[in-house]
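Sample A.
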Amino acid sequence: MALIYYVTQIQFEFGAIKLLKQECERVGISRPLIVTDAGVKAAGVLQKALDALPGLRVVVFDQTPSNPTEAAVRAAAEVYKTQGCDGLIAVGGGSAIDCAKGVAIAATHEGPLTHYATIEGGSPRITDRVAPLIAVPTTSGTGSEVARGAILIVDDGRKLGFHSWFLVPKAAICDPELTLGLPAHLTAATGMDAIAHCMETFMAPAFNPPADGIALDGLARGWSHIEPATRDGSDREARLNMMSASMQGAMAFQKGLGCVHSLSHSLGGVDPRLHHGTLNAMFLPAVVRFNSAAESIQKEQRLQRMAHAMGLASASAIPEAIQEMNARLGLPTGLAAMGVREDQFDKVIAGAMADHCHKTNPRLATADDYRNMLIRSM
């Protein structure tokens, strides 16, 4: 059976941050906890959110780490409870939004966070008691503002997914103006994250034609606008289209992802210093090559359709085109340049095999397949 679900209320325009109080009132949030990070605060974006909330009693948690952890979720959940908050506003990239989703669970559900992880059978344990959340993305990458999942590093070091339709933000405020001036390296890394989402969801074998169309259009937007956005942080058209590509990739998440994310989730848990979007960019070429032999890919000409969206002459050109794009964007040349070592492979492979994205790849990977992908990505 195909489950096709779309998704939440989205305010998408330059200056949409001004609608934040209106959305709080619609959702029923009067005492919000804003979950953000030090970088967003330093950039002045947090203040823009606060200025959009006159008359509300607002509490701020600004200690979200670059890869959100169970410890950060606990700390923020304690603030939420002690301050009597009745909802959450996430202001930031995927880290802040995912951290807020963790808080939405931890502040309203009993027991350790791992009890609710997808691979621990936790999705049905997440109920409608979750705290209501409004998401305000400040990067164009994860698309977590319209997604049902969160990725968090739990206390035992694993990087786990948490998935429930109850975790979908009640509203997404997508304001491309908040991404103007984002540094080039973050624009590139988060942008390739969005492109990876569009590609992996489109390659996933689940039947969901609306998601396919959304992902393919998102890929075309992301591929054609990531370089202008990286070169010129003030390019409004590029910023608009990158934010749309990010949102569209996540709207298609319901199809599932694949080996790119199995590997990046696992490696990101082994070394939390590594940026998730950059890892996705490193793994994409090897995974596209691996997926090219999948029956569903060949039957539905999925690589050819992606190549067309990317303006390429043939499907076989995709892996090299991604590598060339990474180079033009100033991203690392491979995993080795990021400090990844071959003695980490066994742990990474074990994590990838257990990851929630492993089984939704169009071709089921073995441990040897994952090892080959890692080697190719070095």
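Sample B, a different protein:
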Amino acid sequence: MIHVENLTKEFKMYKKTPGFIGAVKSLFSREAEIKKAVDNISFHINEGEMVGYIGANGAGKSTSIKMMTGILVPSSGKCVVDGIIPYENRQKNAKKIGVVFGQRTQLWWDLPLTETFSILKDIYDVDDKTFKERMSFLNEVLDLDEFMSRSVRTLSLGQRMRADLAAALIHNPKILYLDEPTIGLDVMVKEKIRKAIKAINKEYKTTVILTTHDLSDIEELCDRILIIDKGRLVYDGGIENIKETYGYMRTVEMCVKDIETAKKIDVAQTFELSAEDVITTVEGNSLFVSFNRNKISISDIVAHIMSKIQVTDMNIKETDIEEIVKRIYNHEVNL
């Protein structure tokens, strides 16, 4: 469905010497440097896949998405979307894709939602029968009926996001690009948006590319993630695989009776492990032990601590995807 091969995008940026002399000098000669926003990335996304596309601000994900949607032309490499080169066939490509930006809208601000959808129907040349079927389905999964007759300016953020998602899907696109679709939404509306995306993917096999900083969206919707950092693709694989491979740290929290004794327990020293493999901290009435599960078992840790002190309760926490990605951004994990 989407084939990206050695895709690169370079921007020419001009240096400016500060001050008045620098301003005058720049009128006659300017020194340029080349900035690689996207650096030789390759991947393939199949029809019906839901893929999380994530990276820190400035990592290059927006630039690569713009090349896939046909807004930008690559400096080199190849991008083919459903058999079309997007930047060479923008109009044809636009009929195959839907786009939702969390902080922007494609809706007409002063028009009732029904009129906005009618205009989009004509723009995308959707026949009456298909439009009626699509709106029936979208009403069902997004609960649009309660605000269909209201102007867009009167909608809450959650209602507008549901309307924006519906607007992007009126022409039944093969590919849906979602950029921060749940930003600023409360928990209930987020869950409604997620359920709708799942239903759309299941019913129509719509391929979904999701970019977001809310990693709970990724975990809820996607089985595969692409991580981009400094213009390069640093990870392409399953969420469970990245957790298994890089989420080797676990944390056990134990509520204890004698907190002063707990402060004296040094698990790393007892098992002759480094301070990076076992970290022991005390907070309130709880003893926390974060440990590398490849170096020591939880049964050894718990048995040792319970031989020293009375434990009244216990909780074990796995490293979540958000923590792993944060470590990747900070270059603490080598991929």
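Observation for Sample B: The chain has a mean pLDDT of 86.
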